[in-house]
Structures
1.
Amino acid sequence: MLKSNCTTWDFLVTLQLFNQSDMKTIVFPVVKLIRMPLASHHTVSQFFLAVFWIWMHLLYFTVTNQTFGTSPEEDAVNKPNRPIPAKRISVDSAIILRWVLVPVNLALSLYAGAVPSGMTICVLTSIYCSGGGHSHWLSKNGCCAGFYALFEYGATQIADSSEKLNRNQLGAIIGSALIIITTIHAQDFRDDEGDALLGRRTFTLSFPVFSRITMPILLSVWSIALCLLSEANQFVMLVLVALGAVTGIRFLTLKSAKDDRLSYLYYNVDMALNGSCCFQLVES
């Protein structure tokens, strides 16, 4: 249960804590894209509706993920600030919240005009959590790319008030998904110890040396390719290439969990810039 003296503010803080660690991975990069002309006709109200849609569907995923299997016990050790290990909410109450979010999000998607994306996020969440998608690097990376594409597709559709996205918008989303599926193992380095104890077969555990070698190569290649093909200004290009190289080299040379957490923060900034260049690419 929630704390007996829980206020509305406490409850909202609890909800945000479910989403907090994924804000930089999903919410901020996607919001940056829909703020740009990727959703070229949006109004202020449409923009905030899209942001709220992202946040609510992310909440469904994070609540499901943090209540599934041994996640509560794992978070008690690795991420004690999350709502369940922090005793802000019980596992049973969080499970009830998870099921309440299903019809709430369906109604929200129906109102916003993004039902296919919303329903597919629910299905992909089940595949990731209860279907074992999180346990092997191939399915995990594929699911992560799928989540990113679905959030981006649905939010762009809402912000642009369009039933069907155009070729340029789809191209930007596909480009972002390709970058994610080839580099998202950046998030696994920081959790290697815990993942090993749980028997997960992440890319970083399956290929500990090769996975680190890929980071400077892939991040640099993506950054250079996007800069060469897009119409982003020279300063953005320079920052993108430099950040990709620095982030990749950090992953290769600095291998403590603390260093990997900071490198992952750099990675998320790099992904936001890459997403911006994806849009410039398809518009050029």
2.
Amino acid sequence: MTDYDVLRVFCGPRGGYGNELGVVREGSVLPEREERQAFAAKLGFSETVFVDDPERGVIDIYTPGVRLPFAGYPCVGAAWLLDVPELVTPAGVVGARQDGEFCWIEARAEWAPPRTLKQYPTAAEVDALPVPPPGEWIYAWAWEDESAGRIRARGFPGRGDGIDEDEATGAAAILLTEQLGRALNITQGAGSQLLTAPQPGGWVELGGRVYLER
């Protein structure tokens, strides 16, 4: 069995929740895309990262079904684990920094995979949503406190690959931040926390807490 770490990314203030991420630190043990895709499917996490160069931060990201040029929570988790100033992804170079209990990355919204951002009138309506049938990737959200930038969100990948709901979705948070043009404090899923802030030149910062599960 290939060795891998399991992180929880975008944990809540008390360390709970977060989205589980698989990280294969020695990507060379599975060099082919087909091998990596099969291993990501076997692990069954929303995303799995393969590290191809830990010093330069070169990574490769897979869902159980597809390879992604960029994804938010895998980049935050990998940046925390590798403790590097940047990550190299197929989409581009992702800036990274540690700030106390938070790990931050800086990326561009156009790197994010397509998401349907669907606003609801209240957080209670978002909480009550059933899992939709497979189809488009839906990021359902509502203001909890608009003046404070606090948002309630849930993510439904719609892929039919066994991931009915995504506990914390960094790429969608980046897209929503670009759309709204302001810093956000997002509670997603059962209680994960994502922080964002728009930056000059079309960049968006995305931050959260990361813990090593095993």
3.
Amino acid sequence: MTRPVDSGIIFIARIALAVLFLWSGVMKLLGYAGFVGYLHSKGVPFVQIAAPIATAVEALGGLLLVVGFKVRPLALIMAVYTVATAVLGHDFWNVVDPALQRDMVIHFWKNIGIAGGFLLLFVTGAGRMSVDGARTPRSGLGL
């Protein structure tokens, strides 16, 4: 990173991604039984394992994004998770109602776009405005 503005932009990107996952993770916690039922209805295998993992990935992953801790490995996990939820949760190819299918297509590609944002975060890292950035030694040359 060579420009001071980069860390601020990366911080905003982390927050924008985190809000979606924090909100969704908290909603899963508050309506856990309903979430488990939804996973069953979608035919997700091993729901008793998948439900707590999904809830933790979203809630804890969102929190870690906000503070910027271990962002590079977290970004890879979140990218894989987001693609998996696109395939399992927004399977437009199995929907026959045209209006619902259109909605599922939008959500599917939205998830793929979010995964792309996570891959960019993997490349850039958390930026200086983060726990990761605070732990990185800085050279005196401004590099």
